[in-house]
């Protein structure tokens, strides 16, 4: 195996990493050809598997620049399982793909520590993964991460736009900052147009830039899934790339629009800083960032108080951010109160 | 959205691509938060989901260098679904992740054309995917691909090393050349240590290097799955990175070794060329390349003729390549006949 190692691929380093992940995840089956997940189907009449794949975009370049790799795996899991949750499904298991130029076991272990933490937050199971060493593909310590989550729901409990009616209330669940979208713009504003350092702390922010930018994406499974299972949630939008306009539009049926009252929730200080420093229009802001809402939950008016208090009790910061009105699938953000 | 586009991310190009993939895959549900797959469980008593994730390694760099992107997606699907098949499971659905520096819709469409073709060969369904545009992460037209496959099997029909006995016959299924492993060594030998051109044709090869190296990985689902479902296959090893030694060792139980008779199957001309040009030891060869066998199927002696003829009838090139002997999980490749 000497020739292959000289060509840049260290198979033994890969085996060592598999052992590390087995220990971290406490899943000793990792490393076989395929990951196994027994299905307990007692409670499902017409089970549907709901799967999602995603990456964390150029937030990775912040983790690389800051040399802080322990939370980016949480972002990876969050991006996938929140999508599965948004369909009304319970995330069951997760797999990760890590592409690297040269395998650095310590760094890979940090990355996978985050994946394992994310999977735990999602009350899910890590059943497999792939670490691919690709000399000449990735440079400068770069790596890419892709995640894959599979969940399950009963066919008639999948959330759908048919559940929505005029007057339904939109509850916004606070994000933990930027989450994992808009980072090409963030990097452009802070590090290309300007010369901020990762050690700087921007106005109104609690953390310096490296920690502020790397705040891990919230995983909403633990707080939201029980309410989905109670049948009390009409629909969910996971706010990712494209912001409120694109992601809320995806859940709207014909004949309804969503109206948000800007000012009814807190916009994170980091976003206000980015708007000011980058001279961004509100249009740019709303299409790129989550504006402080990581997930928007639509509920019927009679359930709104109950759901809001249950979500609050589960640790979420919840605001009543808008409602559904008659319209043509528009997402309107009213700034009257601003 | 102008600011984000100026920072290198074109959301509208992404939407166009989703439409293209919907058309290619004929799955109009693509583009929602999560991919849906209804489970038909009639025939499963204790269903187990079997999932696999993989990439295609630096074979990508050959596709990029040759500017031929239409088959690399077949490799991606093959790497994942053959792993699922090797557990005795039927692949159900697939998702892909494509990371790019700058989204080139034509190239992405070529790549996804291969994914759709691979999914079709695997008698599976494409239920989702992610195309991530990451400026500054990937350079020189580089991109990475990760795939995720999920299959299903009944718990008691999963292939396991418990099925294997001394005297079981190893049937080797011909690979389609290099498949998707060893490419860092291939590139080192051909393009770094030496200065071959992708237009050169090596001794004994039918195709020039760009087409020889890019031969898509065989997908064995259509020919092998029916035999798995008949209960006639004892175990399967998918021969990928690590070659016969590592991959066959993974299926061996305590007390058994595998003995291969080198010379009982055809080693592809491209590998012989690489051995000669790269001055590779046989040890390097066997740990890096599949040596011409993409999948090794273990069967009980009384089933060997039947299985061999069924696989041949299904279009596979099948050789009786060895057997299981008493031993300590060693993979022995006897070269007496060489």
Automatic annotation (TrEMBL), chains A, B:
Similarity comment: Belongs to the AIR synthase family.
UniProt subcellular location: Cytoplasm
Pathway info: Purine metabolism; IMP biosynthesis via de novo pathway; 5-amino-1-(5-phospho-D-ribosyl)imidazole from N(2)-formyl-N(1)-(5-phospho-D-ribosyl)glycinamide: step 2/2
Residues annotated as domain PurM-like C-terminal: 166-333
Record gene name: purM
InterPro entries to which the protein is assigned, alphabetical: PurM-like_C_dom, PurM-like_C_sf, PurM-like_N, PurM-like_N_sf, PurM_cligase
Annotated protein name in UniProt: Phosphoribosylformylglycinamidine cyclo-ligase
Catalytic activity: 2-formamido-N(1)-(5-O-phospho-beta-D-ribosyl)acetamidine + ATP = 5-amino-1-(5-phospho-beta-D-ribosyl)imidazole + ADP + phosphate + H(+)
Ranges that cross the membrane: none
Phylogenetic placement of the source organism: Bacteria, Bacillati, Bacillota, Bacilli, Lactobacillales
GO molecular function: ATP binding; phosphoribosylamine-glycine ligase activity; phosphoribosylformylglycinamidine cyclo-ligase activity
Top EC class for this record: ligase
